[in-house]
Design brief:
Shape: globular
Radius of gyration: 14 Å
Number of strands: 9
Structural class: alpha+beta
Strand content: 35-45%
Keywords: Signal
Strand order of the largest sheet: 1-3-4-2-9
Length: about 140
Amino acid sequence: MNTLTRTLVAAAIMALSGVSAGWHTEQPPEYTLDRWCNTEDEQGSRACFTTDVDVSHPNPASDFEGFLSADGKKSVIWRAKQSALLQTDDYIINVSFNDQGVSHCAAADIQTLTGNTVDNGNFCNASSRWLHLPAKQ
């Protein structure tokens, strides 16, 4: 399934479910966290995370679309707009999406509320990288 088709189907699922921004219910087999973050042929713009903190109830200022694993330990944020913001009690996650030609990339940055960088990285095409949100010390 190409990126445009995947984006259109995801938008249709979200519209039908009445869900706007935030965490969405996985729709197997195509729309799952594991497929989006572990599949080598994945072409969608997305950023994948592991976490030791609760991200299930983001700050109301958050503006993102994604899946959260049932145990709350893994998540993926995908492109719904040019950028995404997930803010928790301890962290700010910014994701910028840049699609150029056949490259579907995302640059993700995790910071503390005081602006200290915790982790960052780029996700392009078949990247299977994961960024980590550690428990606050």
